[in-house]
Amino acid sequence: MAASVDAKKIIEHVGGKSNIKRVTHCTTRLRFNLVDNSKANKEELEALGILGVADMGTQYQVIVGPTVEGVYREIIGILGDSFGKGTLDDETEEPVREPGVLNAIKFYGNKVFDVISGSFTPIIPAFCGAAIVKAILSICTMTGCLAADSSTYAVLSAASNSIFYFLPIVLSVSMARKIGANPYLAAAVSASLLEPNFTALGGNGEMSSFMGLPMVLMSYASTVFPAMLSTTLLYIVESLLKRIVYKDLQVVIVPTLCLLVVVPVTMLLVGPFGFYVGQALSNFVMWLMATMPVPAGFILGSIWMFVVLFGLHWAIIPVLIANIAALGSDPVMAALDMTIFAAAGAAAGVFIKAKNSQLKSVAFSTIIPALLGGITEPVIYGISLRYRKSMAIMCLMTGVAAAFVAATGCGEMSTAGGFPSIVTATNIPMYCVGCAIAFFGTAALHVVLGFGEKSEEELG
Q1: Could you report the per-residue pLDDT of 301-312, keeping only the tens digit for each?
Q2: What HEC string does the chain produce?
Q3: Which pTM value belongs to this model?
């Protein structure tokens, strides 16, 4: 796709300015909400040299490629800024809700997945880059090329860890842009969870208070759920305030009240939720592994991706580390490591099966970080959350592999992920079989069954 594509011609061939309600873009596509899709001329659009056109009913998508952002800016420059604005409840972006409970569940389910996918897609490049740097660091330290206590390692480690540590801030900005909240206010709210004065109050499970109300403290670094909850709350509070506060006073009063309301509520609710639910989950996990290892392995493997997504794994990981320290190894850790190999298998399967070159590139870039560094975020956020069939396959094969590892009595002597975990396993041959089941099984099912590319559309 040439960067010199005529933005005016694109506007003309989608029916002109009068036929456009709104236009947005993702990594490769211009997404038009049109008054009448039949007025768009597919043949004329394709003659401009674009990659393709997709009429999704509620959205008319013009596939531009990597230069889409520049073309989008030209189009907005012609149409005006108002054509690029919208919020989560913008009816032009949502399909019509059909009557019935099942249709309502499907409607809101699609809405949630759209927000999640749209929030994570813009930050995928940062995940991929950081994960590859982390994998390179892992290789360098394992081969002795770089000392872990050197200043060079510290600099490169900061480059690879920053996006993950400050994920709540980055995610809140991206999600705010997606749903129509103020992205800078969202960043301020999430940054408060990592602010030194707040983190100095204590660690996971310790108690503090806010205006006499009990507050359970926890670490919010690298978490997803708190950022998503706080940004959603911010959107609600901000929208309400903009309706009741006099317009000339909004620039001062709205952000002030948003911070005064959203930050404390997030700390008061998310902390207890993460701690108590996580503690209950931790106790349940240890009970399952002690009484029925095979079903426990399958259940844990199948749901672990979601546990990580909501930040509840921080209540379990310390227990696993304590087990390793006291007993020398831990069977739960071995089962959970199968998630990494299944994620790498999902990326490999998507790379083989995908038709879209952009998606192939994203999938390929996530395989090595997962296998060498145990970094699965790029796969989860770039593929699994966007393609639900891929998510289902990955969860299934993780469960199968985890059940096998649990049945054969494998354990882990460290928290290493990916290939480094193999040398720390207590039953290396069986552990390798489990890894093979997770990786090759997941990849094969993606190739044979597909992963939903046609129904979900390609990345971007």
Answers
A1: 998 888 776 656
A2: CCCCCCHHHHHHHCCCHHHEEEEEECCCEEEEEECCHHHCCHHHHHCCCCCEEEECCCCEEEECCCCHHHHHHHHHHHHCHHHHCCCCCCCCCCCCCCCCHHHHHHHHHHHHHHHHHHHHHHHHHHHHHHHHHHHHHHHHHHCCCCCCCCHHHHHHHHHHHHHHHCHHHHHHHHHHHHHCCCHHHHHHHHHHCCCHHHHCCCCCCCEEEECCEEEECCCCCCCCHHHHHHHHHHHHHHHHHHHHCCHHHHHHHHHHHHHHHHHHHHHHHHHHHHHHHHHHHHHHHHHHHHHCHHHHHHHHHHHHHHHHHCCHHHHCHHHHHHHHHHHCCEHHHHHHCHHHHHHHHHHHHHHHHCCCHHHHHHHHHHHHHHHHHCCCHHHHHHHHCCCHHHHHHHHHHHHHHHHHHHHCCCCECCCCCCHHHHHHECCHHHHHHHHHHHHHHHHHHHHHHCCCHHHHCCCC
A3: 0.61
